[in-house]
Specification:
By secondary structure, the protein is mainly β. It has one domain (about 10-140): OB fold (Dihydrolipoamide Acetyltransferase, E2P). The chain has one helix at about 65-70, and strands at about 10-15, 20-25, 30-45, 50-60, 75-90, 95-105, 110-115, 130-135. The radius of gyration is 17 Å and the shape is globular. It starts with 9 loop residues before the first strand and ends in a 17-residue tail after the last strand. InterPro entries: NA-bd_OB-fold (IPR012340), Primosome_PriB/ssb (IPR000424), ssDNA-bd (IPR011344). Keywords: DNA-binding. One of its GO terms (cellular component) is nucleoid.
Length: about 150
């Protein structure tokens, strides 16, 4: 059977909903988890009013991009991330099966700081910098410690 081609890339731009949560793998690779809000609006056909809608996305940054995020980002900052959609499954301490679908930004992805709400120095915005590569040698998400649900 021939291998089918596929493509998994997610690009999101939004505001961070929590301060980055850094941790390290046993081999020292830094990982940061955060929640990213993206907004959408549409006009309700019946009322004619504009309706705002916010979606929340789980984002996991790995390697160098995680180190940058933990140093420079905070709740409210606007970022752009390019990564892959991954679903992880685990069993909780009480035996409950859990899963999470998240955007993983590893050595193949990028994260760009755009300024926005939490910008620390308006004269020198981080959005003027090129996208930060996620770093080399990042672990495979399947090797992560699945005992800690997000």
């Amino acid at each position: 059977m021939a291998k089918k081609s596929s493509f998994n890339q997610v690009i999101l731009m939004g505001n961070i909903g929590n301060d980055p949560e850094p941790r390290s793998t046993p081999n020292g690779t830094q990982i940061v988890n955060l929640r990213l809000a993206t907004d959408d609006s549409y006009k309700d056909r019946k009322s004619g009013q504009w309706v705002e809608h916010t979606d929340w996305h789980s984002v996991t940054l790995i390697g160098k991009v995680a180190e940058i995020a933990s140093r420079y980002l905070s709740k409210g900052d606007q970022i752009l991330v390019k990564g892959k959609l991954k679903t992880r499954k685990w069993e909780s301490e009480n035996g409950e099966k859990r899963s999470i679908t998240e955007v993983v930004v590893d050595f193949e992805g990028t994260m760009q700081m755009l300024g926005g709400k939490g910008q620390k120095n308006p004269q020198q915005g981080p959005g003027d910098q090129p996208p930060a590569p996620a770093g080399e040698g990042a672990p495979n998400p399947e090797d992560w410690d699945d005992d800690v649900p997000f």
